[in-house]
Design a protein that fits this description.
Blueprint lengths: L11 H11 L4 H8 L3 H9 L5 H11 L3 H5 L3 H11 E2 L4 E2 L9 H36 L1
Antiparallel strand pairs: 1-2
Helix pairs in contact: 1-3, 2-3
Amino acid sequence: METSAKPSNNHIGRKIGRIREMRGIKQEALASELGVSQQTVSRMEQSESIEDEVLEKIAKVLGVPAEAIKNFNEDAVINIIASTVNNHDQSASVFFYPTFNPIDKIMELVEENKKLYERLLQSEKEKNELLQKSISDR
């Protein structure tokens, strides 16, 4: 008879702990937001089930819906991460598909730059004229 060492997929406390870790939140911070002690959060994360009202509060602090905690599957998250990482170069690929033409944006910047330069040049010309007038008035 073979026993499975794999933990239950319905262990809400473990799901809360993993989501909290993924979000980079410490037990102390979660406890503070919930108005409980760090030990209480630790006990919650060891509990297989949690009252819906408490789960709603935890979900709000973690920034996820309560249903996301209930349906959280770490294996699925690992599979998603594994399928998006290119192991050949040890980095993830990022694809950027702009909804605009980048060359058009560059040309807009060039035109804006020209206008600013022309305004600066006009300002300098006006300063020179004022200086010339000031010198000639003496």
